[in-house]
Amino acid sequence: MLNRYGVLRTQALSSLCLKARASRAKSGELAEALDIDPGGLLHTVRASNAAVPAGPPADPNPFHRDGKSTQGLSPAKSNYAMPIDESPFEGYAVRCGITFTFGGLRIEPRTGQVQHVAGRPIPGLFAAGEMVGGLFVGNYTSGSGMLAGATWGRLAGTHAARAALDASSAARALRV
Length: 176
Ligand SMILES: Cc1cc2nc3c(=O)[nH]c(=O)nc-3n(C[C@H](O)[C@H](O)[C@H](O)COP(=O)(O)OP(=O)(O)OC[C@H]3O[C@@H](n4cnc5c(N)ncnc54)[C@H](O)[C@@H]3O)c2cc1C
Known about the structure:
single chain, alpha+beta, two-stranded antiparallel ribbon, 3 helices, 5 strands, 30% helix, elongated, binds flavin-adenine dinucleotide
């Protein structure tokens, strides 16, 4: 759910997919519009509201973390904790996604050719993007996902095409 500042109130969400949207005056109507359990929604919102600490209101400034975190929720909302108590409410259906895997297939970095666990290249198999591992460990630089995909996509694509051409000319030579 979004509050009046448009700050997303959800826990452990690495990605969101906008599947449905509803803006309603009452949480029950919102639940109905989103086709989710109204009792569950109410329970979650109440628990979230109860976890907002007393004191000065949150400062929803995206350029400054206000440190106002929920208490008793796991995982905690680390900043900008504020109650969802003003209608109209807006709801989005969300699902988790993977922003970065950090793991994946080992490739030869100059060609994108996939390496066997025994250390030798696998003929005809090339990989790029999220399915490649070993580029980063633990964390990554913003924007590097697409950049890695574009860089090794081009390399792997070029070498895969080359390998295919080589294989077809070798096959033609065999037929002659
Ligand atoms: C929420 C989110 C935010 C992100 N933000 C950024 C960002 O700001 N900057 C950045 O650089 N990176 C960002 N990333 C990471 C970036 O999106 C990925 O690293 C990148 O899209 C990976 O590209 P890819 O081609 O390897 O995989 P994908 O983009 O996942 O493409 C794989 C494709 O294969 C298709 N597919 C799967 N199985 C099959 C099959 N059996 N047959 C045919 N097709 C199939 C899928 O439908 C999909 O289209 C973000 C990721 C997420 C989830």
